[in-house]
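#struct-help
A.M.: can someone run this one for me? Single chain, 122 residues.
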Amino acid sequence: MAALVVSLAGSWGVADVLGWRHSLNGRIDGGNWRFYAVYAVAHIVGAVLVLGAVDLVSLAVDVEVMNALLLPIVLGFLLALEAKALPKEHRMRGAYRFTVWTLCRVVMAFGLAMVPFAILAH
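D.P.: on it. Structure tokens below:
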């Protein structure tokens, strides 16, 4: 299920940045074929990676390591969006904000602390 979500989100993001139509509600036509092409290529590349991998356990571990290394970046952007982009009435306040920011910083610290180990392991 995650592969479908990730490939769709990536295709949606590419189409959005490039100004292409991107909707799953209609048929494939002249306006949205590029979105579906990117979506199909994402699945094909994923299938080639999985089918070409000799050791699927190692591939799964490498994906989890990559996830842990990228998580600090994602969390940092989410916290920045919450602090800058949301209207004041929708921003976190009080103990909830403190708890969320603290937990995000702890997760980011663990992710960043893992970088040397991930680099040395390969």
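A.M.: thanks! DSSP finds five helices and no strands in the chain.
D.P.: also worth noting: The helical segments are 2-18, 33-52, 56-84, 94-113, 115-121.
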